[in-house]
Specification:
By secondary structure, this protein is α/β, with parallel strands linked by helices. Helices cover 39% and strands 20% of the residues. The strands form 3 sheets. Strands 2, 3, 4, 7, 8, 9, 11, 13 and 14 form a 9-stranded mixed β-sheet that branches. A 3-stranded mixed β-sheet has the order 1-5-6. Strand 5 and strand 6 form a beta hairpin. Helix 1 (17-29) crosses helix 2, helix 3 packs across helix 6 and helix 7 runs antiparallel to helix 8. The N and C termini lie far apart (35 Å).
Length: 275
Amino acid sequence: MRVRKRYLPPGWYPGAEEKARQAIAGMEKSVRPGPTQGIAGIVPHAGWEFSGGIAFEVLSRISRSMDTIVIIGGHLGPADGILCAFEDFYETPFGQLAADMDLLAAVRAAVPVTEDRTADNTVEVQLPFVKYLFPDAMVLGMRASPSRDADRLGKALAAAARALGRRAAVIGSTDLTHYGSSYGFAPAGAGNKALRWMREVNDHRFIQSVLAMDFDAALDRALREKSACSAGGALAALTFARENGVKEGHLVRYSTSYDVHPGDSFVGYAGILYS
């Protein structure tokens, strides 16, 4: 039995169970009324202090009847393909999550999947939320490149889940624009003007694309406009939702790192639900 151990230090999310529960209890208080039968979504992947509340709210709107939650992250280039952790279990502060190895095998029969041997925040930071909200569900931690591979993965997951009779949800772990000197990207200058441009132009355009479920536009904007980090996750979730008959997405919440810690560099975060 192989266990994928925690990699991120406690600054990303609490290491102890009680502290993790306390942090989530605070997030639960800010969850607003809304749909709770989602089958897919897009969540940010910064530390819980910055974007955990958005990620938790989206995950709390996924149907509790799910057998498997697939988290798809990124930090890959367009030619990096599809990766998946091959361990049998994932470690979280709330106990282990079992991997859905049957679903993985069915996906691997349809598309090439490489073993993910690299620790990465895009998947790990979501796992405690999954264990807390879906204590009996299985999970897969995957990563998809920002390319047509994300489309192929979304389609393969939808087909494999149907073939297995598996009630599965797919969550794309994708941040938005990384702006400022810390990221080497500042086309709109600095200060409040730059923050408005990120919020109202660059992030907005990508968000509108994924809400409209326009794969090609979202991919183009992510690559050309640098409006999404780890866009493959969002794109795979979009495709999975479309394959299951969803016609449009719902914006759950949007914020930026500036809202938590003001500075001259900032990141956008969006939570999107497909139901």
